[in-house]
Amino acid sequence: MTRFWLIKFLRTVLTLWLVVTFTFIVLRTSGDPVVALLGGDAMPDEIEQFRQQWGLDQPLFVQYLQYVAQMATGQFGDSLRDHRPVIDIIFERVPATLSLGLAAYLMAALIGIPAGILAALRRGSFIDRAIMAFAVFGFALPNFFLGILMILFFSLILQVLPSSGTGTIWHFIMPAITLGTFTAGTLARFTRSAMLEVLEKPYMRAAAAKGVPAIKRILFHALPNAAIPIVTIIGLNLGQLIAGAIVVETVFAWPGVGRLLVTAVSQRDLALVQGLVLVIATTMVLANLIVDLTYGLLDPRIRKGA
């Protein structure tokens, strides 16, 4: 048991270290951030002074060691453009992204999982085909395209919903639907597949033969045994709340982490980009870790096999 938890923790730490290292190297070898920040008409002495001020005149390996040492103390440096701590800038945007992501995820779970169960119970019927058509539509349609369509229809034509910004519950509707449609379609598809496999098991037929009510067979026999693939999709999509919101936040001008990342990349703000990538990677890795640990709780064979 202890070995199982230890392996998962070490993999998490290793993944985050690789992400930090890769991001650090790519950002510093893909172009000169000083020129991007100061402009092409900056004087050479101004450029050199800026490099010295921010430590960009040091060798790449020295910069890397300094950055890792900063991270070890919980510091992510200061923004090259705003001259403020990166962690403060990120935390200002996290609540907006979390509120949008959780609203989208709640909508997706409340629609996707019951739809998948219903499709499995009505296999081959019109309801099954309609739900699977919705699922294909959900995970095949790009977020940015769906968002633009919703803005055109609900904001420009009907004029019933705001097209951008935050402030009221009405601002959540279109971004949450756009962000949650993919997850809802994915959950419906995988829930249906998992339920179909479980419904064919001998213990389900035995429970029906014993006269166990249908709702009880579904909730207490079928659903728990179909939980592992469903938990996988739930966990992976939960980790994408921040990463997947980048496009949606840009389309709807939502003041969250995703939009901040787009702005930081365009401005070549190295420290801010590194901090944002680390936050997104941590979200993804922790979601995967929680999924792995949940596997061990749901199925002791997985825990012992580790």
From TrEMBL:
Topology class, membrane: Multi-pass membrane protein
TM region positions: 102-121, 133-157, 169-188, 226-252, 272-298
Domain ABC transmembrane type-1: 94-295
PROSITE patterns: ABC_TM1
Single GO term (MF): dipeptide transmembrane transporter activity
Family per record: Belongs to the binding-protein-dependent transport system permease family.
Protein name per the record: Binding-protein-dependent transport system inner membrane protein
